[in-house]
Q: What sequence folds into this?
């Protein structure tokens, strides 16, 4: 079982990125999945969840700017992040609900 994130980078405020989380060893369509971020010196901060049903949930701090989606055929979960702010700077990682399974993360840095 493995999760591999990609798509991070350094962007200016107001920019956009699309993060990907490729799963192997299990089928994402049979699990809920989530994105979590961790800023330097801080604890993990839940960002968004997509359930098996397709229902999506977001932290208030990202609502309206972030969109979680899932491509079952590619066994990949995405996080589209728009209108980035400096406070969005963090290591973003995906995880399977109800499991310690998580990826290593991809760094997002927002700076002018």
A:
């Amino acid at each position: 079982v493995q999760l591999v994130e990609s798509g991070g980078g350094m962007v200016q405020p107001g920019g956009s990125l699309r993060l990907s989380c490729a799963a192997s060893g299990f089928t994402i369509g049979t699990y809920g999945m989530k994105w979590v971020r961790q800023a330097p010196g801080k604890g993990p901060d839940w960002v968004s969840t997509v359930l098996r049903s397709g229902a999506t949930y977001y932290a208030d701090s990202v609502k309206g700017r972030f969109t979680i989606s899932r491509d079952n055929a590619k066994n990949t979960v995405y996080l589209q992040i728009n209108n980035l702010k400096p406070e969005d700077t963090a290591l973003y990682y995906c995880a399977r609900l109800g499991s310690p399974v998580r990826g290593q993360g991809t760094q997002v840095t927002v700076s002018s």
